[in-house]
């Protein structure tokens, strides 16, 4: 049994079906509801996936519900910069409530989407619930079983240049299914580096960049997914916001001030894109919870 205290809920207007959380997770987080599935949509031209991946369903497909998760300081910093200082643990103070929530979101996701920079910042990581918060691994496993998801979530890494180390544990152990979405030059580099054959590689139509929609289509070619989790980094988050793919954002507000002095880059959770004042993106508050001095916010985006 975990020793965490339950999150205190101040506001919760989440719509949709309440998920069958095991008692321990419901005690800690409270009820978790996700909106009903949207109507089927016509798929865009998919990214190319080699023959080791099953073909996606033809015709109409259901648009997956995509939610992001980030932790930020009070002054909007999500990564401190510098060697060994880019992980979210330093931002949250390795807060247990934050890790519990991260585990919960991973436990319900069919796939977790991560940028190459995020992978490089935590090279030994696996984007699974049991990895981020082992004390609740039994409860997370029970939740995935109740949701009919016996396999770990698909690990999706986005890298335009294909600059990924094939010797990383997430690629070598076979513990989790892995998809890399890259460009044609990036795919050539990955094959040349000796990426294991068990790793699916999808290529974009553009030789220089990968769009958010192409990431979603590549996932659809590999695994039928209803719930997708985006864990950054800031560049990837900006792309998904810009292409209006993100439905919700779970944001942990950590009670520290990191500061900026210009010597290292300390981005917010969106980088490389500008929205305001021309086209500001406004979110609607869905939920507000507290764990100690950390706030757990949830916003919906049209």
Question: Which properties best describe this structure?
Answer:
14 strands, 10 helices, two-stranded antiparallel sheet, single chain, 302 residues, alpha/beta
Largest sheet: 10 strands, mixed
How much of the sequence lies in strands comes to 15-25%
Structural class, by secondary structure, is alpha/beta
How would you write the strand order of the largest sheet?
1-13-14-12-6-11-7-8-9-10
Note poorly predicted spans: 39-45, 51-60
Number of E-state strands: 14
Into which percent range does the helicity of residues fall?
25-40%
Q: Mean pLDDT, as a whole number?
A: 90
Radius of gyration from the CA trace? 19 Å
- Please state the overall shape, judged from the principal axes of the Cα atoms: globular
Notes on the protein architecture:
26% of the residues lie in helices and 22% in strands. The chain has helices at residues 23-29, 88-92, 96-108, 116-121, 129-132, 137-146, 169-172, 184-193, 212-222, 234-242; strands at 8-12, 17-18, 33-34, 40-41, 61-62, 65-72, 111-115, 154-158, 178-182, 200-203, 227-230, 248-253, 284-291, 294-300. The chain is an alpha/beta fold. The N and C termini lie far apart (39 Å). The longest helix has 13 residues, at 96-108. Helix 3 (96-108) runs parallel beside helix 6. It has 10 helices and 14 strands. Strand 13 and strand 14 form a beta hairpin. The strands form 3 sheets. It has a 10-stranded mixed β-sheet, with helices on both faces.
């Amino acid at each position: 049994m975990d020793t965490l205290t339950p999150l205190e809920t101040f506001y919760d207007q989440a719509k949709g079906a309440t998920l069958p959380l095991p008692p321990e997770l419901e005690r800690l987080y409270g009820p978790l509801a996700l909106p009903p599935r949207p109507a089927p949509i016509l798929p865009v031209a998919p990214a190319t996936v080699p023959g080791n991946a099953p073909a996606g369903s033809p015709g109409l497909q259901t648009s997956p519900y995509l939610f992001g998760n980030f932790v930020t300081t009070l002054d909007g910093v999500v990564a401190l910069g510098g060697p060994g200082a880019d992980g979210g643990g330093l931002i949250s103070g390795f807060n247990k409530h934050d890790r519990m929530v991260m585990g919960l979101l991973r436990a319900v996701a069919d796939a977790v989407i991560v940028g190459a920079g995020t992978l490089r910042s935590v090279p030994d990581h696996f984007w699974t619930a049991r990895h981020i918060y082992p004390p609740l691994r039994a409860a997370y496993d029970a939740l995935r079983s109740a949701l009919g998801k016996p396999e770990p979530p698909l690990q999706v890494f986005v890298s335009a240049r294909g600059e990924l180390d094939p010797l990383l544990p997430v690629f070598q152990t076979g513990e989790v299914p892995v998809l890399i979405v890259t460009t044609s030059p990036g795919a050539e580099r990955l094959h040349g580096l000796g990426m294991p054959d068990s790793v699916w590689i999808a290529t974009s139509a553009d030789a220089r960049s990968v769009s958010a929609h192409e990431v979603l289509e590549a996932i659809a070619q590999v695994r039928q997914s209803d719930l997708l989790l985006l864990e950054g980094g800031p560049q990837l988050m900006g792309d998904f916001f810009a292409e209006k793919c993100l439905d919700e954002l779970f944001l942990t507000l950590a009670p520290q001030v990191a500061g900026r002095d210009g010597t290292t880059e300390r981005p917010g959770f969106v980088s490389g894109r500008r929205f305001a004042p021309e086209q500001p993106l406004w979110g609607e508050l869905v939920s507000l919870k507290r764990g100690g001095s950390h706030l757990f916010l949830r916003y919906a985006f049209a």
